[in-house]
């Protein structure tokens, strides 16, 4: 039947409803080969929500360039663009073995040299300065996640909280689940902040633990093949040869 045939059912069932990213849809519908970049001032979280593959698949020296280029296709606000690019660079750094907090410090220093990054850096510093207790009060202090820098801040905070739990003696599995809960528990754009946090949590911990966590979310009948496929993709992405191939094949819009 496909998604078109199922659309009336999804519309009628409130638990499946979600608002499409209007900024992305409008920007894509108006873009052309000669003018691929968006002409708007949106700083919605649609940029950072989709940027993880750039950090995973593009060689480190080009991650920022590619993340900025892909963000500009739908969002024109510098805060949205740089929120996405710094998150992609953090994902790249952590995937290659750097500690998250060290990578954050390095990127903050780098981005001080770039104009129009004040909001991004303030949001990151806010996440670093809060007590790592995972409380709703702490998360709310960072915003609601509708705009890119707030989504970045909440996702980063949730990952730092998860790492803090491991230091405190929690099992890695419980730390991951609590990190996701932290990112998802607020009344704002919680699906987006949790999705972005999940980008990083999937890199911070071992494949075996992620495998266990993923299985806990799906029924055996539905989830087994999906989890196995996700893990296959994860292992493929981790192959340095894959990084080189994707980076070589990417051509940024003019």
UniProtKB/TrEMBL annotation:
Its cofactor is Mg(2+). It is an enzyme of class 3 (hydrolase). InterPro entries: ADP-ribosylglycohydrolase, Ribosyl_crysJ1, Ribosyl_crysJ1_sf. Keywords: Glycosidase, Hydrolase, Magnesium, Metal-binding, Plasmid. Its EC number is 3.2.2.-. SUPFAM superfamilies: ADP-ribosylglycohydrolase (SSF101478). Binds 2 magnesium ions per subunit. It comes from the Bacteria. Mg(2+) binds at residues 189, 191-192. One of its GO terms (molecular function) is hydrolase activity, acting on glycosyl bonds. Belongs to the ADP-ribosylglycohydrolase family. This is ADP-ribosylglycohydrolase family protein. It comes from Agrobacterium larrymoorei.
